[in-house]
Design goal:
InterPro entries: Metallo-B-lactamas (IPR001279), PQQ_synth_PqqB (IPR011842), RibonucZ/Hydroxyglut_hydro (IPR036866). This protein is α/β, with parallel strands linked by helices and 299 residues long. It has a single domain, classed as Metallo-beta-lactamase, Chain A. 17% of the residues lie in helices and 21% in strands. It contains nine helices and 13 strands. It is globular.
Length: 299
């Protein structure tokens, strides 16, 4: 299995267009310690010819331009992108579908709830229904978007997309609004969890033994957006675990056998984005990698 990190940042990217938090200030100045990042997505392939996108970020056009494996290979219209698999209805995971509107055949997979959100918004009709099939997928039912890759959805504690929040909001429920994906090819297994509000025993079982894990790395500290003076929400309120602390991801997953651990969907305020920072060193010392755009893995 081949894996490419198309985007490694949370919504807004790094630097975020309207932000001068400490991390973004360094990025705007061109400080080499902070690598610019686009919004999170990965591409996977079994044969290097047919590719599946895990989420379609608003930065997809730039991501394709930066990734030779995803570019047209023959004259006329062509794309090696065969499918897009959606883990939820967040804007930073579905808006990129609008980039793929130029009459190209591929398939979109998601839960019935996620696909319903797209169906209800007519702007997504620019992605031709005649060419682009929308395939609802049930939890814990294997599906193969391309030959050689088998995927399976599983529920993850989370919440509805920000734009669907109302007075009935519950954070941390396993309603299917937030989804993880297991991807297998031959004897290799990848687990992709770009959003997560809590670690449950069921989630630990899903992760255990993975050859490669991509996991929600939105914040380093739960209150970092408040401390930076650019937000009023904690990570927990946004439905995201933090990397650090006794109840953070590093500690909660420390005992699990995982060959390689990678944080993805990293917010622009996260100091672990600064190479050489105390936070970056702590994450690496714990056996984690902070994802960068363009990283490639072979399983």
């Amino acid at each position: 299995m081949q894996v490419i990190v198309l985007g490694s940042a949370a919504g807004g990217g790094v630097p975020q267009w309207n932000c001068r938090c400490p991390v973004c200030q360094l990025a705007w100045k061109g400080d080499p310690r902070v690598t610019p990042r686009t919004q999170s997505s990965i591409a996977v392939s079994e044969d290097g010819a047919s590719w599946v996108l895990l989420n379609a970020s608003p930065d997809l056009r730039a991501q394709i331009a930066a990734t030779r494996a995803l570019q047209p290979r023959v004259d006329g219209r062509d794309s090696p992108i065969r499918a897009v698999v959606l883990t939820n209805g967040d804007v930073d995971h579905i808006a990129g579908l609008l980039t793929l509107r130029e009459q190209q055949a591929f398939e979109v997979y998601g839960t019935a709830d996620t696909l319903a959100l797209i169906e209800q918004n007519q702007v997504f009709d620019v992605v031709s229904k005649a060419l682009v099939r929308r395939e609802p997928v049930s939890f814990e039912v294997p599906f193969s978007p391309v030959p050689g890759l088998t995927m399976e959805f599983f529920t993850v504690p989370g919440k509805v997309p920000l734009w669907r929040e109302d007075a009935s909001l519950v954070i941390g429920e396993e309603s299917g609004s937030t989804v993880g994906v297991t991807i297998t090819a031959a004897d290799s297994r990848l687990v992709y969890v770009p959003g997560c509000a809590a670690v449950t025993d069921a989630l630990r079982r899903r992760i255990s033994g993975a050859d490669l894990l991509f996991f929600d790395g939105t914040l380093y500290r739960d209150d970092e957006m408040i401390a930076a003076g650019i937000g009023t929400k904690t990570g927990a309120r946004m439905g995201h675990l933090s990397m650090s602390g006794a109840d953070g991801t590093v500690a909660l997953l420390a005992d699990l056998p995982v060959a390689r651990r990678v944080f993805i969907h990293i917010n622009n305020t996260n100091p672990a984005l600064i190479d050489g920072s105390e936070e970056h060193r702590a994450v690496e010392a714990a056996g984690w990698t902070v994802a960068r755009d363009g990283m490639e893995f072979s399983l």
